[in-house]
Description:
- One of its GO terms (molecular function) is ATP binding.
- By secondary structure, the chain is α/β, with parallel strands linked by helices.
- The protein has 20 helices and 11 strands.
- It has helices spanning about 1-5, 10-15, 15-50, 55-100, 105-110, 115-155, 160-165, 170-205, 210-215, 215-270, 275-315, 325, 380-385, 420-425, 430-440, 445-450, 470-480, 500-510, 545-550, 555-560, and strands at about 335-340, 360-365, 370, 400, 405-410, 415-420, 460, 485-490, 515-520, 535, 540-545.
- A 6-stranded mixed sheet has the order 5-8-9-3-10-11, with helices on both faces.
- The chain is elongated.
- It binds adenosine-5'-triphosphate.
Amino acid sequence: MAFFLEVGWFIRQHKWRYLTIVLAIITASICSLLPPLMIAKLVDKVALQQNLGWAELWPTLAQLLLLAFATYGLRYLWRLCLFSSALELERQLLLKLYGHCCNMPAAFFRRHGTGKLLNHLNADINLVSQGVGNGVIFMVDAFVMSTLVVIVLATQLNALLTVCVLLPLPIMAWALKRYGKQMHDVSHQSQQALGNYYQNIEHTLSGMQVLKSHGYTQSQQAKVTASLETLTHANIAQSKIEAKYEPTTSLVAAASFLLTLAVGSVLVRQGHMSLGELLAFNLYLGYLIWPMNAFGFLFNTLALASVSLQRVNHVLNEKWPVAANDDGDVSMPEADLLEIHLPQGFKHENRDTNALHPLLFTLSKGQFQGIVGPIGSGKSSLLQLLLGQLKTEQQPCYLHANAKVAYVPQELALFSGSLKDNLTLAKQDATMAEIRQACQLACIDQDIQLLPMGYNTLLTESGHGLSGGQKQRLSIARAILSDAEVLLLDDCFSALDALTCRQLMVNLKCWLNDERAIVLTSSRLGLMRHCDSILELSERNHNLPHDALMAQGTWYSLHVGDKEA
Ligand SMILES: Nc1ncnc2c1ncn2[C@@H]1O[C@H](COP(=O)(O)OP(=O)(O)OP(=O)(O)O)[C@@H](O)[C@H]1O
């Protein structure tokens, strides 16, 4: 039942709808409980008065018909209300989880994996929605119906016989509680197994070409098969528990029927009950079978829903420090767009050594900043810290209020859709002239014009259909088009020839125009001479213009000669 407390916020949000549902269930239950009493009276009348005419029969028959229609209408109403509420909760949770994911840094996605997040967004949220849909049906309907049946049995028919009916119920309650606990543990495992399975499938499908080229399809298939086996075992364990619910409730219902027949026939023989009352009693017992089964389904549904809700909440509760430009509290000199101060350097989660040495780095408008250093010296890590994608417990990175940042990572992200759709991702209302201008600056306009469908050329997932260099320039054009004030370029010139690189550097310098700033990391050291200042990541973290850095005799000055662009 703790599940209902956890989704209490949603039930309160839709309190009128839930009140309507409860009232409709109570009224429908009363309507469906009246017929047996009416039938009992009719049977006793027939027993007393052998030749009963149509005139005496039809009012009862008309009332029975009316009650049947009323029950139908009310049941339809509350089911409709309940299922639409469940779908609404599903929609709200999906939006909440999706919105949360959108605000989380790269480390979050590495930790959870796309497949597992898809599992939360799909299976887990669906089970939670079933909890507030079917769960409420089972709980309210079963509770209302069983309470009303017991009241009618005890007050209208026979109290002693009612006690006999209730005798086996504690056994059922104990068994259902036990199954619910077992189901809670097992469904945790099965949801986890489903997440792992999704994860493996996602890896396999997205990397299929590489797997095939290395001949790894067999071993990857074995991995997928193993995760599927684990999932199947977990699901079978879950089914074994599910299979116990119905037989248990049926057994308890059968015990109640047996007790009623045995005690009831004695009571009729002793004249404490009429035959019509015993018949009505048995008809009402039939009404108790559904609530008993429903209690079984309730425990099952709630066990699954509460595990899934825990899993979703676990992801939702992962907090990320608010980006400094969101809280408006930015104590920055006007000229600086961005500042990061790492007095103790920076270490990745689960790593013993620093990825960055102690550093103070500021960026002003109009600045073209290069970042260099040996492989693994922390260039990408620094850009991710500037973006707020990595976490530091020291003084956080300060972005000037409202400074808009565009980032072109090493692993480019292009989506299925037209080239134009990909370009306008960050500026949906961009005109064709603006799009072309951004592409000209990124030296890709000519390539696009040569394509048969130009800007309408369709790309498949990950930009298949374009060369590596085209993908890089397209990503740069998209970043330029976004009108960002800070452009972070992470080694995204690696697939370009020297001539294009030089042209691109000249274009980017023009684009800066004292209004924006660029931070560029590149293994093409020859390009760095175009930058205003070059930060060389090392123990001393020199940040100097090209000539001054050359004069220092540092790593850069030793390597720049070999890497002319
Ligand atoms: N997500 C991560 N978790 C743990 N360690 C990481 C993570 N990302 C990078 N590192 C480590 O941090 C160090 C710096 O990596 P980073 O990618 O920032 O270097 P880089 O200078 O950009 O390298 P390259 O020139 O190859 O692009 C490396 O030792 C790397 O193994």
